[in-house]
């Protein structure tokens, strides 16, 4: 069998165009009322709370329908089953920066941000919040199993999303809100109406609303996993391999419409899983090889065991159905690629043998007692 791996996820963290603090360049004149401050970087957000351990949020997915003004780490989905394919690491960082960040409405409210009115064509909320900070480290999300994550997100799309929390930034600094034109603020300064919390950048004024020291104060979003390329391969004749389980091909060829053919294909894939489990059992319980071999040769018992695997064996890829008319009705053919996770092998073995033993007992087969004894050995 040939290996068909999922395409690596695009979680490479993009270089960020930081603007370092230092000597400030001459601030340009603001000739027209249509000029507004530079918008914040779309992927960087101020946190809902500043602390020293945001690890419970790293790698969480954001709902796809979440608008920009609602994004903070508390809006991310609670870590689900796909999170087991992600890990975190912390790296050192250094530098002093001045940058405009996004902030959710909830974060702005908690910081006490108050609107200063409209800025020409836009509003003060469009400006984001200005953060001056010295960064000392980052917490990053890493992918421990790209293939497993892609498969998990394909099988359970509600668990994932197109964006995830990919970084947290640690350091010290200040947060300021937009306060209007520098010329207007400095004009009022002569009248004693401006305090020391104001600073200026590119012709605009900013008023400090918060400070932070040695805390994770911001996060950056990164892209979620891309769709696996598994189904693009020649899986019909070259069954893929995986470290996380086994793939099986089921064939549906019936005198019936496509829905019935799909049912038959999945049923046959589950029968293949039962045979695989039986072979694995024989390797562990060589003394039971005759009992297991006899059960696998009995199509009634195999079918009984396969019916109990419906929740454990999931379809991954399908061929296009082909159908032709016959005097008896439509004859439909198709194939399915199904996946059985390795982590469920022991439980599935016990369930399959138990189902065989119960069916053999009902049908008064000689294999009923040996199968029941084996089921007892396998029971947790």
The share of residues in extended strands comes to 25-35%
Terminal CA distance: 32 Å
Low-pLDDT residue intervals, each spanning 5 or more residues:
1-35, 117-125
Counting structural domains, the number is 2
Given helix and strand content, the structural type is alpha+beta
Task: Compute the CA-based radius of gyration.
Answer: 30 Å
**Extended strand count:** 15
What general outline do the C-alpha atoms trace? elongated
**Helix-strand pattern, N to C?**
EEEEHEEEHEHEEEEHHHEEEHH
Give a brief rundown of this model.
By secondary structure, the protein is of the alpha+beta class.
What descriptive keywords fit this protein?
380 residues, 32% strand, 2 domains, disordered N terminus, alpha+beta, five-stranded antiparallel sheet, eight-stranded antiparallel sheet, elongated
What does the secondary structure layout of this molecule look like, with pairings?
Elements: E1 44-51, E2 61-62, E3 86-92, E4 96-101, H1 105-111, E5 118-119, E6 122-123, E7 129-143, H2 146-155, E8 163-181, H3 182-189, E9 198-201, E10 204-223, E11 241-242, E12 245-254, H4 258-284, H5 289-296, H6 299-307, E13 314-318, E14 322-326, E15 329-341, H7 345-362, H8 368-378
Antiparallel strand pairs: 1-10, 2-8, 3-7, 4-7, 5-6, 7-8, 8-10, 9-10, 11-12, 12-15, 13-15, 14-15
Question: Could you please describe the fold and organization of this structure?
Answer:
The chain is of the alpha+beta class and about 375 residues long. It has eight helices and 15 strands. Strands 1, 2, 3, 4, 7, 8, 9 and 10 form an eight-stranded antiparallel β-sheet that branches. Strands 11, 12, 13, 14 and 15 form a five-stranded antiparallel β-sheet that branches. It has a two-stranded antiparallel ribbon with strand order 5-6. β14 and β15 form a beta hairpin. α4 packs antiparallel against α5 and α4 packs across α7. The protein is elongated.
